Fold these 2 entries.
Entry 1:
Amino acid sequence: MSEPVIVWFRRDLRLSDQAALAAAAREGPVVPVYVLDDETPRHRAMGGASRWWLHHSLKRLDESLRAKGARLILRRGKSEQVLTELAKEIGATRIHALHHYEPWWRNAEKAVGEKLDLRLHDGNYLLPPGTVRTGSGGMYKIYTPFWRALSEHMPPPEPVRTPARIETPATWPDSDALEDWALLPVKPDWATGFAEEWTPGEDGARARVASFIDEAAAYEERRNIPSVEGTSRLSPHLHFGEVSPAYVWHRLHDAGGSVETFLKELVWRDYAQNLICQFPAYGKENGRAQFDALPWRDLREAKGDFAAWKCGMTGYPIVDAGMRELWATGWMHNRVRMIAASFLIKHLLVDWRHGEQWFWDTLVDADYASNATNWQWVAGSGVDANIFTRIMAPLTQSPKFDAGDYIRRWVPELAHIRGDAIHDPEEYGCRPAKYPAKIVEHREGRERALAAFSRIKGG
Ligand code: FAD
């Protein structure tokens, strides 16, 4: 029997279009492993909502592997150490994995590659970051030219087939028990609503793609309306790699109809990763250095406002609905993410990094690249970003995007309010006593933000 080969799973928890698994299966008996590594990413260790997802996704992956006679080995610790020990234990020298581009994963890949024969494959992006280049050979910083250049390379490669057979080792190495990792919340179990909303795992991801195909034609018209399910809700599945973007691209494209708007959104994911490859510290460092001097409010002073924002008690129904949807389901509609983020940054003048951290902990799709890129886009501090002085007015956005039913669903204190008053019950004189008054007036918040910005303009 030939030497066993390790497949190192990370954010690629699927069997199909999994180039690492396919390559390993061609070479010999396969030992699939997932390492729960909180040491390598340090303060970027997965947040609570992501851990909930991970638990269920690993369970599904193990079941799929078992259906093929294999299994998923679970180990905990620093990746390079765990993998080297495992390789020694089973007599393996080669390890296959998909490229991951978060700065901590790149470091880990380097360290593993120094000790073992690490073979890295593509597959978590439409194109490997760095493939599309500007005329002068640099990487793109601005989305629109990036999208145009990337489109030239489409379609992405056809998905890699799932190995029909996976040869297994004569004996399996020991594995941790998933339950012992305590990835699920217990006291309190804040994730009860998650299971109603989501089916983590490859089958759940594929079912999501299949059901979205029927809705895709209406995407352009409905994607900004939070009251309807107008978007794919594929983000956590894509983040955990339960489905590859190439698979999504091909399924949507083959279904015909106008899917360009959707594909353009999908490309934002590639774009964000392309930025991280250029600016690895984008999750904490402003893309525009002038923002380093912005006089944000001290969080000790803004503590009450920040707490009100986190728990959806700002007195702005659209913001509160979004923050409560996030808490209940681990996800928030994109339009509302923009409004809620803008409110924190501008109306409350709280540094975008605090909001980014909260999303990191509470989103099931928390993704280093996408989260940082979008927060910096909203803040205006990014290399490609909204202009800071273009301040979103939540009370205008709410009726504009017909958020009434969305608010009624997520803010039960307001569920009885009919008509336009739902967007601003205080103004209409029907704010129930248990719903807070606005924590800051729009004009006051706006002027404070503009005054702060005037201190750095042109700086
Ligand atoms: P769809 O509209 O159906 O889009 C399909 C896919 O394209 C998404 O699943 C996602 O993978 C990708 N996509 C769409 N829009 C974006 C975008 N603006 N940036 C990057 N990828 C995009 N997305 C994350 O995946 N993880 C995050 O941590 C994250 N943080 C965000 C923080 C803020 C402040 C904002 C404004 C947006 C953030 N987004 C993040 C982007 C976006 O809100 C979500 O990707 C989207 O809401 C997911 O819903 P969907 O799958 O239905 O999207």
Entry 2:
Amino acid sequence: MKNKKIGIMGGTFDPIHTGHLVVANEVLNFYGLEEIIFIPAGDPPHKKGTMAGSFDRYIMTEMAVLSNHKFKVSDIEIKKEGKSYTLNTLTELTEKYPDAEFYFITGTDAVIELPSWREPQEVLKLCRFVAVSRPGISMDEAAVKISEINKMYNSSIELFQAPMLKISSTDIRQRFKTGKSAKYLLPESVEQYIIKNNLYGSNDLR
Ligand code: NAP
């Protein structure tokens, strides 16, 4: 009998922003989760590279969740050599927390790519999958794609309508690069960390 509900917030977090934090809080409330573990992806299998290194993304994630005792951060993916696969991460977490039911939370655009992940069928057996709506993809469009995936794997991925904060890591990186303010889109501590460490070409903002 699984008696602990744990959310797993998977993403690159390059950088983490207020949109991620709001989504996590909404999912926590809606499903009555005990806690959410943010897991910054180390070396995402499907990407050529991230803009900030895994250590910086991990530190920024730690800073962002500091004030919420229900939000934790795991370095399980960033400390691994080589590619990080969700299957391996969930298998490890299942061993570590045998009593937990996991809710894997990520953006719909990542979920739509699920068929290209390593052993999606097995991944879906290890957790409840929550696809969070993102600005730019309509709920109808996302619902159609997710229902196709559910048919393909006989799964029950759930589509979660989060408050549509139009915040994206891509836009935030672009702002730092072009010297525009990203204030209030991300925690102030994370903003300061980015500027202090010249991440995303933020030199002009000092
Ligand atoms: P990503 O690039 O970080 O994000 C994809 C989209 O989802 C972006 O629009 C992003 O917005 C949004 N997003 C990211 N994390 C979110 C979250 N937790 N809640 C709501 N929206 C979120 O994501 P990714 O790197 O493709 O991967 C997401 C997760 O899937 C990671 O845990 C990754 O390890 C896993 N994954 C596994 C495999 C595999 O095992 N083979 C393959 C692909 C992905 P922002 O840009 O604003 O963050």
